[in-house]
Amino acid sequence: MSTTGPACLCCGAQEASLLRTVNGHPMWRCAACGFVQVHPLPAQRALDEHYDRTRTTDDKRALRLQLLRRFLTSDNNPKRDFFDRVLATTARMTGRSPLDILEVGSGFGVFVHYANTAGHRAVGTEVTEAYARMSSEGLNGRILHVPEGRYTGTFAPASFDLILMEHVLEHTTAPADLLAQLRVLLRPQGVLVVAVPNFGSLVSRWTGRWWSWGQPPEHLFHYSPHNLGLLLERHSFTVAEREARDFMHRSIPQLFSLRRPLNMLRKAAGLKAKPFHYAYPRTLGDHLLLAPYHLLSPWIRRSWEQERGSEIVIFARPCP
Question: How many CB atoms are closer than 10 A to CB 42?
């Protein structure tokens, strides 16, 4: 089924086809660059209610404080390694340290806390007032709610060396407008770091409509390395570094461990699901939990060479 819309945000093409409908949301694929978007989009109010309902409950508040306490003391912390890479790469590219940092979509605020503790100046944002307020509790730093997404009305132009969006761009209802605003907020030598799920990944192709990272209304836009690069270029960024692979701090535990099927069995038995284990495997139990990853490792690692890993990470610079 073809149509003249929705227009592609990445390449501007008008022709799209209905790929599938998931959770009642039609998903359209651009005929030119393969970009996939939900259309029509859910109302922002409905999305805000969804995030408050799924992110600010008492158990999430308790989990957040627990994770925050453990983060700096753990000696097995892939997430900290990713943050260190982001900070070190940005310092190298900008020639500046400490850095002025904006994190868009801070979640539980761990990166803001870590960056400030390391001597940088970081501030974060979240999608609702309640979520931002919860994420600021006990934090070394602030998480703000930006009303109606007016970033340029909240922060001064050219005020940040680093802007980080880690698994955020696929959630926002206006990615093109957001990127245009962030371009204004970056300093001329600044760095935008974007990490998103890879719609062209091995796992996405294997699992199709059941891909766990392709479920609206959580994720509304779906990128490949190519079309994400096009989107950034349309909004005056140039890609400095790009990769599409899998990481122990997110995709490997979520997509290649036995935790998800085991949790499905636990739920069927009326038991509470266990959290994913974001750590490098050290014990026999750790390795057994990651048995699918170990078994599929030759194909997974080969997929990285073809940019078919589960996560796209891009370091971009503002065009002069």
Answer: 15
Tell me the CATH number for domain 55-245+311-318: 3.40.50.150
Can you read off the two tokens belonging to residue 245? Answer: 């692979």
3 state SS for the chain: CEECCCCCCCCCCCCEEEEEEECCEEEEEECCCCCEEECCCCCHHHHHHHHHHHHCCHHHHHHHHHHHHHHCCCCCCHHHHHHHHHHHHHHHHHCCCCCEEEEECCCCCHHHHHHHHCCCEEEEEECCHHHHHHHHCCCCCEEEECHHHCCCCCCCCCCEEEEEEECCCCCCCCHHHHHHHHHHHEEEEEEEEEEEEECCCHHHHHHHHHCCCCCCCCCCEEECHHHHHHHHHHCCEEEEEEEEECCCCCHHHHHHCCHHHHHHHHHHCCCCCCCCCCCCCCCHHHHHHCHHHHHHHHHHHHHHHCCCCCEEEEEEEECC
The whole model's pTM is what? 0.95
Place of tokens 């501007």: 12
Task: Identify whether the C-beta of residue 227 lies closer than 8 Å to the C-beta of residue 10.
Answer: yes
Domain boundaries, the chain: 1-40, 55-245+311-318
pLDDT tens-digit readout, 191-247:
999 999 999 999 999 999 999 999 999 999 999 999 999 999 999 999 999 999 999
Contact 27, 37 (CB under 8 A): yes
Alpha-carbon distance of 146 to 100, in angstroms, equals 18
Residues 303-316 have pLDDT tens digits of: 999 999 999 999 99
CA distance 8 to 28: 10
Which 3-state string (H, E, C) describes 197-246? EECCCHHHHHHHHHCCCCCCCCCCEEECHHHHHHHHHHCCEEEEEEEEEC
